[in-house]
Design brief:
about 475 residues, mainly alpha, Growth Hormone, Chain: A, disordered N terminus, disordered C terminus, transmembrane helix, MFS transporter, transmembrane
Length: about 475
């Protein structure tokens, strides 16, 4: 096949990285990157959701009563680590490069994840889960910064939602694995196998990531022009396209990247509103789904049936993602996000009114559909709102805020088990509605816009 002809800029006229990526088009490089990042994203989903499935077995092994402080601590430890990891690794990715953090966090996640399977005490298990969270807290913001910077403008929103949809794959895998292991081992033993096997997909993801170059946009922002052109050359070869024969337009150099820059000028309002969206969505999502297996079991459902139900709910996430991938390009990121959050608020109240097992399953499926669609839209929207020198830092900050909510959510979600269902679900519904209002108040639509390299170039068009 003859490579497509690429019209180059006039000799000597600099071209931006976005222009080059758009000209090289969508091809095998982006699909391969999606598969590699998606595999790690699925592995991270398994680690994040793991304790909700493992907790019944851990409780049996160590004699923990439902809703005790130790049980809450086990659910919160991963999120506490993710809080610190998101803030630290997001900043490091803007200072040291996407690829370095890309590889380091996956390696540490595998090692700490495996160590938890051999923990002899609850204290050491909590420590292992905290360190696992610290590692995977860095993969979340860095993966999205990397993906956003390699995908052509016209496809970027859809690809970011596609990446988030691998979360459903991870949910299916961990639920299916938990279900299978519950039929092979007694609960007091199955949780160790679950923790150990859940860490293994990260090994495959690590090996696959070795062939991915650093982001050319990040390299250029750090003054590494030759390396940026080399990375673009790899995209061109993979996509069988010609690299434009023109110098790359270097963005204004940033002397030093610090998290404080997220709260300067016009970025202040944007960062605070995004943080509110991430907090509200995370509090409601983890508050419901971290405790849902235990809630269903407390309603008298057999453990194997609990895992099968969770599998069905994970399947309900897939159409939520699929619709979000279409809507972010049809009606925009902001409207899609606000719409899904509003539907989630409605779903929380319908869950409260559910009086039969079928109604509980149906309303849970609606919540799963809406909340994961909202996550897809939010992950597409957020990296487009921060300039390149602060993109991973910004993603890390708002992701860390979400982990703050995740730390609170086990305590709030425990209300589901103590008969205060209406209080918990009302709080979650309010969180979703406030998050929807904050998403709309950002006032910026990034659909069809190139990624900003400076604050002045950040999307400013309001609908």
């Amino acid at each position: 096949m003859t490579p497509p002809t690429i019209q180059t800029a006039a000799p000597g006229a600099p071209v931006s990285v976005d222009d080059v990526i758009d000209r090289l088009g969508l091809g095998p490089f982006q699909w391969r990157l999606l598969a590699i990042c998606g595999l790690t994203w699925a592995a991270d989903a398994m680690e994040v959701l793991l304790m909700g499935f493992a907790l019944p077995g851990i409780s049996a092994a160590f004699g923990l009563a439902a809703g005790t402080a130790d049980a809450k601590l086990l659910l919160s430890a991963t999120f506490a680590g993710m809080l610190l990891g998101a803030w630290f690794w997001g900043w490091a990715a803007d200072r040291l490069g996407r690829r370095t953090v890309f590889l380091t966090t996956v390696t540490l996640g595998v090692l700490f994840g495996l160590s938890g399977a051999f923990a002899p005490t609850v204290t050491l298990l909590v420590l292992a889960r905290f360190l696992t969270g610290f590692a995977i807290g860095g993969t979340l913001p860095v993966d999205y910064a990397m993906m956003a910077e390699f995908v052509p403008t016209a496809w970027r929103g859809r690809f970011l939602v596609y990446l988030e949809s691998f979360w459903a794959l991870g949910t299916l895998l961990v639920a299916g694995l938990a279900w299978y292991l519950s039929t092979v081992f007694p609960p007091a033993e199955s949780w160790r196998w679950l923790l150990g096997l859940a860490a293994l997909p990260g090994v495959i993801g690590l090996l696959a990531r070795l062939g991915i170059p650093d982001s050319p946009r990040s390299l250029l922002a750090r003054g590494q022009t030759a390396q940026a052109r080399g990375a673009l050359g790899r995209v061109a070869r993979a996509n069988r396209a010609a690299l434009p024969d023109a110098p790359l337009a270097a963005p204004p150099m940033t002397a030093r990247v610090t998290p404080a820059q997220l709260f300067q000028g016009a970025l202040t309002r944007r960062t605070l509103l995004l943080a509110a969206v991430w907090f509200g969505l995370s509090l409601g999502y983890y508050g419901i789904f971290s405790w849902l297996p235990s809630f269903l079991k407390a309603q008298g459902m057999e453990l194997g049936a609990v895992y099968r139900t969770t599998l069905l709910l994970a399947l309900a996430q897939l159409p939520g993602y699929a619709l979000a991938a279409v809507l972010v390009e049809r009606i925009g990121r902001r409207a899609t996000l606000a719409g899904y959050l509003t539907v989630a608020a409605l779903g929380a109240y319908l869950f409260l009114l559910a009086g039969t097992p079928d109604a509980v399953l149906g309303t849970s499926a609606l919540l799963s559909f809406a909340l994961l669609g909202a996550w897809g839209a939010l992950y597409a929207y957020t990296p487009e709102l921060f300039p390149t020198p602060l993109r991973a830092t910004g993603m890390g900050f708002v992701s860390g805020v979400a982990r703050l909510a995740s730390l609170v959510s086990p305590g709030v979600g425990a209300l589901l088990l103590t008969g205060q269902l209406s209080v918990a679900l009302t709080l979650f519904a309010v969180c979703f509605l406030v998050a929807a209002a904050c998403a709309w108040a950002i006032g910026v639509e990034t659909r069809g816009q190139q990624l900003p390299d400076t604050l002045g170039g950040a999307g400013t068009g309001a609908d």
